Fold each of these.
Amino acid sequence: MSTFDTVLSMVRQGEKVELRTMPSTDAGVLSTLLMHPEVKPHILLRHGDSSPHTYLEKLVTRMLYAFDPCALHAGIYVRGRHELIGTASLQNWNRYENKAVLGYMLNPLWWGQGLATEAVGLLLDYAFQELGVMKIEGRCRGDNLRSERVMIKNGLTLERILPMPGSSGDVMKVFTLLHK
C-alpha cells in the first residue's frame, strides 16, 4: 500500500475524538465551519483573483477529495459519531525536506473540551510515525491564545513572532516541533 493510499484511508482514534477521511457529504458542514464568524478570522484564506465564494468551493473540494498533493486534511469527529466538528491538516507538505505546516479548526460549540488538543496530537503522531515528517510548523495570530495552547500542549515551542502584512500591529506566532 502506498503512502497515498494510507493517507486516503486514514483513521486515528483517541479517547474523545477520531481523525478520519471526510466523506463528500461533509461539504456543507465544512463550508459552514470555514465561514463561521468565530473561526474565519483565524484562517488565512487567500482567494487571489477568485471570488470568495468560488475560492471556498475549491478549498472544500481540495480538502474532501485530496486534490492537493502538498496537503493532508482529516476530519475531526467525536469518537463514535458521524458529525464533522473540525479539521486537522498538514499543509505545505514537503516530502523531500520532510516538513509540513500544521492546520486545525474546530467548531466553537466544542471549544474548551480538549478535543482540538487531542486531534492535533493524533495528527502529529501520524505525521511523524507513518509519513516520515521530521519537522512541523504551526502558526497562529498573536491574540489566538486557544490555538497557542493547543500547540504548546502538543510540544510545539515558540520559534519566532512575525508582523502580519497589512495589519496595524497584529502578529503571527510561529511554533515548531522536531521529530526525535
Amino acid sequence: MTNVVLGQRAIYSLGPQLRARLNGLYMAIFFVGGGVGSALGGFVYAHHGWTAAALTGAVLPVLALGYFLTERHD
C-alpha cells in the first residue's frame, strides 16, 4: 500500500495535463502485475508445492531490489 501512495504522490506532483493518463496507466500496471503474480504463485504452488511458492515469493522482491540498487540514477 505504501508503494501505491508514493507512486501516486509522484504522479500528482506532475502537471494536471499528465495526471489522468499516467494515473490510469499506473493503476492498470498494478492490476496486471497483481494478476500475473497471482497466476505465477498459483502455478508454482500447484506444480511444486508450498516451499517453492514461498521461495518464489521471497526471491522476486530480492531480484527487484537488486535491479533497483544497480540502476543508474542520473
Amino acid sequence: MFKTVLFPIDQSREAREAADVVTNVVQKYGSRLILLSVVEESSPDESSADPMVSPEAVAKLLRDAQALFSQQGISSEIVEKQGKPAFTICDVADEIGADLIIMGCRGLGLTEEGATDSVTTRVINLSPCPVLIVP
C-alpha cells in the first residue's frame, strides 16, 4: 500500500516523535524510506541563527536519523535539498513517487496566521500524496 514513504525531518521534538510512527509504517508495509531535510534559503540580511540553514547541521541530522532507523533494521535513503521547506517537500514527494508523507505537526501557534503559515499546513494543501501528521 505504501511502497515509498517520505519522512521530512528537522530538529524539532515533533519530528523525533514521528520517527516511531515512521518505523511502524515502514516495517508493516515493507516500504522504501526516504529521509529528507531542507536547508532553508536565507536572505543576505537575515542572521543564520537557525540551524536548519547550515548544510553541515542538516547533513549530520540526516546521518543521525539514518543510523537510528538502521538500528531498527530499516534501510533508508537520504535526500538533502535547499529551498522553501513546504514546496521542497512536495516537489521531492512528486519526484520520488511517494505514496505517503509522514511528518510531525509543528505549527507556528494557535492564531489564524500561524496555522496558515506552518510548513505542515502548506504540505497538506500542496502534497501529491496522502500526508500523515503525527501530533
